UniProtKB/TrEMBL annotation:
Residues 54-63, 76-93 have a biased composition (Low complexity). Its EC number is 3.1.3.16. CDD domains: PP2Cc. It holds the Pfam family PP2C. GO terms for biological process: abscisic acid-activated signaling pathway. Residues 136-387 form the PPM-type phosphatase domain. This is protein-serine/threonine phosphatase. PANTHER family: PROTEIN PHOSPHATASE. Transmembrane segments: none annotated. SUPFAM superfamilies: PP2C-like. The gene is LOC115745899. Residues 42-96 are annotated as: Disordered.
């Protein structure tokens, strides 16, 4: 049995196209809106016989009658000859119709990228995409209701004696997995290259240039789609958390959840003002605020068709790692749309702190499963970093 799914609240939504996804095949197709693609049989309908008192009944060969609605009194027939796409306004008797101009351009029709890029599609019953546990971090990725996983992650850990440096990232792709795949493979290297060639007090600038270079390199490939990103750089006991998009970082400070990033969405007032200053507009569609009526995030890697308004420049927050900073959660919005910051910390903390055998991987699984049980259709990626290992 197959199932057609229209994803209306995904980051990229093109109203003129609907993705039809078969749960047991690896192909995605665009449903045609052509009149030839739909047919309706009326042979099963039983027509009512025309009243005998009506002298002007329909032709005997046609059992159906069509009654045309009369135009409202006082309006000439010319008022109804205008194109339906141009509404008319009539003021006073005998006034000429006034054509109302469109205030905003039409929503952008974004080409749909292949959904099976990167990770091959797995059977619908196999919800586990990947899990990994290494020194100081655990990550668990759970595929959503799409045919292929679009989330990616990266991790780089370097230990030289007492010196510990690490860089982690979670990437949430949209319009395909190409941008997330590219960011996972290149962003860490670009950030580290920028960090190594700058002074220590320029780390935030180095991270920004790493993001911008990754974005430029991806755009030069002329690939479609985009990706939200969140990264955590640990260097010399300092934590630099950056994001572009709605992936989020939350730190547990002695049991209290503190968000270290702020989601970049068009509904944010400063993001809305920035977009409108560049000539774009922000509108609500199907209950979600979107750029040009289509894109639901305002920063990220890629998004060629929206690059005038969507920047890859991240926001960065820095803090000194102290004993009270117990662990850090990096996750895609598949988690945060269904689980609050404090709830995530409350679930993960008993499994990570105060036990002889910490189970951070189990914490990651529990968080992803909780979001899925609450109806999340999106891919869910959860990374938990034990900050005590890097002090």
């Amino acid at each position: 049995m197959s199932c057609s799914v229209a994803v209306a609240n995904s980051p990229v939504f093109s109203p003129s196209r609907v993705i039809s996804t078969s749960l047991f095949c690896n192909k995605a197709s665009i449903l045609s809106s052509s009149p030839d693609s739909l047919s309706l049989s009326l042979t099963h309908l039983k027509p009512s016989p025309p009243p005998s008192s009506s002298p002007s009944s329909s032709s005997p060969s046609s059992p159906f009658r069509l009654r045309l609605q009369k135009p409202p009194t006082g309006l000439s027939n010319s008022s109804f000859s205008s194109s339906t796409s141009n509404p008319v306004s009539i003021s006073g008797s005998g006034a000429s119709p006034t054509i109302l101009k469109r205030k905003r351009p039409a929503r952008l029709d974004i080409p749909v990228a292949a959904l099976s890029f990167g990770v091959p599609a797995t059977p619908a019953t196999d919800t586990l995409a990947e899990e990994r546990e290494e020194y100081g971090y655990s990550v668990y990725c759970k595929r959503g209701r799409r045919e292929a996983m679009e989330d990616r992650y990266s991790a780089s850990v370097a230990i030289h004696g007492d010196s510990k440096q690490a860089l982690f990232g979670v990437f949430d792709g949209h319009g395909g997995a190409m941008a997330a795949e590219f960011a996972a493979e290149n962003l860490n290297k670009n950030i580290i290259d920028e960090v190594m060639r700058r002074d220590e007090d320029e780390t935030e600038t180095a991270v920004k240039h790493g993001y911008l270079k990754t974005d430029l390199d991806f755009l030069n490939k002329e690939s479609r789609g985009g990706s939200c990103c969140v990264t955590a750089l640990i260097r010399r006991g300092n934590l630099f958390v950056s994001n572009a998009g709605d992936c989020r970082a939350v730190v547990c400070r002695a049991g209290t959840a503190e968000a270290l990033t702020s989601d970049h969405r068009p509904c944010r007032e400063d993001e809305k003002e920035r977009i409108e200053a560049e000539g774009g507009y922000v509108d609500i569609y199907h209950g979600v605020w979107r750029i040009q009526g289509s894109l639901a995030v305002s920063r990220g890697i890629g998004d060629r068709h929206f690059k005038k308004w969507v920047t890859a420049e991240p926001e960065t927050n820095m803090l000194k790692i102290e004993a009270e900073h117990e662990f850090l959660i990096l996750a895609s919005d598949g988690l945060w749309e269904k689980v609050s910051n404090q709830e995530a910390v409350d679930i993960a903390r008993p499994l990570c702190m105060g036990t002889d055998r910490p189970e951070p991987m189990l914490a990651c699984r529990k968080l992803a499963d909780l979001s899925a049980s609450r109806g999340s259709y999106d891919d869910i990626s959860v990374m938990l970093i034990q900050l005590g290992r890097y002090m």
